[in-house]
Amino acid sequence: MTLSDILDHLDLSAAGDAPFGLRVGHVALSIHAPEPLRSRLIAYFGETVGAPEGGARVHLLEGQCLPGNLSWTDWQREGGKSGRKDAIVDLDTARLIRKVRSGVTFVQAPGVAIALGPLEANESTVINFINTQVLNACLRAGWQLAHAAAVTDGARTLAISGLSGGGKSTSILRMMELPGTRFLSNDRVLIKGDPARALGIPKHPRINPGTILGNPRLHGMLSETRKAELRALPPDELWALEDKHDLIIPEIYGPGRMRLDGPLTDFWVLNWSHDTKQATRVTPVTLADRPDLLSAIMKSPGPFYQHPSGAFEPNGNTPDPAPYRAALSDVTVCEVSGRIDFDAIAKAGAGLFHD
């Protein structure tokens, strides 16, 4: 099977003839999507939506499928994660990717970005695919992908990654309570040096009930009954509970509270724990001396990424630390250790942005 065979089989016109545009940094996309998915995506992307002025085209084909039977290979997941998530088939000039649980399938090649299958039932997967096209373009331009959340006030940008225990989303949302801060990213931050910059993607936070329960501003996202159920859980069980909710930034914080780029000045790595009584500390570190912290920052580009050479990201490949150290060479990197204390980290953030 070739890419031409697949394109001949698919009906790209089903994506509609009224694309909408997205622009993130230097990256422009033209999104072709049928209704009602088109309207839902426009509402989600909000302030980043504009006219489709050139850029790479993304086609979303509800209900369509690939031709023939394919032999899929499981994509190896990053350390600490289990279960089958993605599977791939490599063609001469393209890669096919399938989400194992949902059956949503993708065709990725130079100038080709197609999602097909049960898209309307998997809107978050479609949003991730669109944002992946932004990531791919930036990676090919020399940016590095960090597994981090971030806020900026236009002059300073704080990115936060997490080792065991996590809590980066909750921490960043506490920073959003500070006057002048704007949301940059919840889970993916692109970084580049000389001078250090941070670029986010238009992806709203997907947060767990523990984050919602711990922030009074977010309580309206849950019913009173559900909040009572959650408060009855042991703290460790509440912390580990996975039940994602979309937090749409303009709905909670108002318009103008997102900014997808900023000068990268500070990077914190959460290495704290519920199992200690030591006070929370934010301590400057040197990444050359702490490769364990760098491992929390680095993020594989995943199966969708095609390198400038034309080769796709190899299965099981791990990021090279050297470009990350270079990108962060002028950034103040700190380890957050001791007990998990969001009041303490919010106080440290207030000192950072208003010193």
Automatic annotation (TrEMBL):
It comes from the Bacteria. InterPro entries: HprK-rel_B, P-loop_NTPase. SUPFAM superfamilies: PEP carboxykinase-like. It comes from Pseudoponticoccus marisrubri. This is Aldolase.
